[in-house]
Amino acid sequence: MRIYYPDQPTLQALGGTNIPLILDVPKEDLQNLASDASAASDWVQNNIKAYPDVSFRYIAVGNEVIPGDYAGYVLSAMNNIQSALSASGLGQIKVSTSVAYGVLGTSYPPSAGAFSSDASQYLGPIVNFLASNGSPLLVNVYPYFSYTGNMNDISIEYALFTSPGTVVQDGQYGYQNLFDAMVDAVYSALANVGGSNVEVVVSESGWPSDGGAAASVDNARTYNQNLINHVGQGTPKTSGRAIETYIFAMFNEDRKAPGIEQHWGLFYPNEQPVYPINFS
């Protein structure tokens, strides 16, 4: 699971379940955690050590804040959180940050993947941190947005994992779906900044069931079911190595602005399924 801030009832509910968890540090906390090591120690004490029965997997220091007003705080906050975890005997919990796919300035073909100049000034040093600590880069990967932003050149089949054969040939690698091409573009970008050993974890992916172009229950179910069935195989670049992936989202968010933002969930707010999905 992934949660976007340390919500106490959720953390209490997760205790003893052995469900691995990504816990986000909200952007509002980044400046304080970056400038004050004792604040980072308090954060770890209150939100991680206080829940010894929760299986914390990664701490995501900011979600989609690079580039932007908070980007300059991310690396220092990561360092301080990492130090606080290590001092608490919790060094097995990996520290990272979650980035939007827009940090790539070039994504096609996948072998040409590169971070944009405004993102790479932050991501270069962050990737060094990840590489030296054995931590992955968390990336939110949405073929839905790539498809709806370029419907003239991208087929819905390529986006939904339903193409019958190779759509994009990139040197030795053949791509049958957009998700793999997007993930491998991130791997290329990482290699360009000295992060060829850094793993990509897909910290969000999904498809909306209503509210916009190509947003339907059928497309959402097709995408998410095919995503589940596919990620164990890896991408052409990582063949045979499963891609750790998190589906956005558990619930439709009825308090968000009308449109697609309300319709990413597998469940309605009343806990009824939007469509059947099989994780086994």
Automatic annotation (TrEMBL):
Membership in a protein family: Belongs to the glycosyl hydrolase 17 family.
Molecular functions per Gene Ontology: glucan endo-1,3-beta-D-glucosidase activity
Alphabetized UniProt keyword annotations: Glycosidase, Hydrolase
Any Pfam family: Glyco_hydro_17
Source organism (scientific name): Cocos nucifera (Coconut palm)
Top-level taxon of origin: Eukaryota
SUPFAM superfamilies given in the database record: (Trans)glycosidases (SSF51445)
InterPro entries (UniProt xref): GH, Glyco_hydro_17, Glyco_hydro_17_plant
UniProt-recorded name of the protein: Glucan endo-1,3-beta-glucosidase, basic isoform
PROSITE patterns reported in the protein's UniProt record: GLYCOSYL_HYDROL_F17
GO biological processes: carbohydrate metabolic process
